[in-house]
Amino acid sequence: MTMTKLRASLRxxxxxxxxxxxxxxxxxxxFHGFAPDARELAQVxxxxxxxxxxxxxxxxxxSDGGMRSDTIYYVAxxxxxxxxxxxxxxxxxxxxxxxxxxxxxxxxTRYTLQDGRIVQLDRRVTDDGIExxxxxxxxxxxxxxxxAGTFLGADDGGL
Length: 159
What we know:
The protein has 159 residues and is an alpha+beta fold. It has 5 helices and 5 strands; from the N terminus they run αβααββββαα. It has helices at 3-24, 38-41, 51-58, 135-141, 148-152; strands spanning 28-33, 63-64, 71-81, 88-99, 105-112. Strands 1, 2, 3, 4 and 5 form a 5-stranded antiparallel sheet that branches. The mean pLDDT is 79.
């Protein structure tokens, strides 16, 4: 095979490999949730708009206040993934709508990714009571606790 034929036969695979390498490194973006933008939030009037009006305008909230039932939240996140690496959160918007006792809007607050705090989760696990004992050791350890009368079906209820 001559050098020109070799170059011509390698041109297509090299081009395909280059295209695959470039596209594998381009970020893939995913969006999760919904948070109203400033134009949509302008429709909310402090002291006049009710909780039902907010839900009608923006839909069901992402979350409510849990223990504090006076707040609902709308959350939107953007995640970027490059190649085989784990997705990274690129943007987050949280809209907190707080209500007074009459269920009218008291305050609307916007939080972003920069306002967030890292929360350390407590990974407590319930102890199973078995301290590094294997299955075989558990089976062999139970042989001394078997009552022969129970094993053979004898009834000891008449004592």
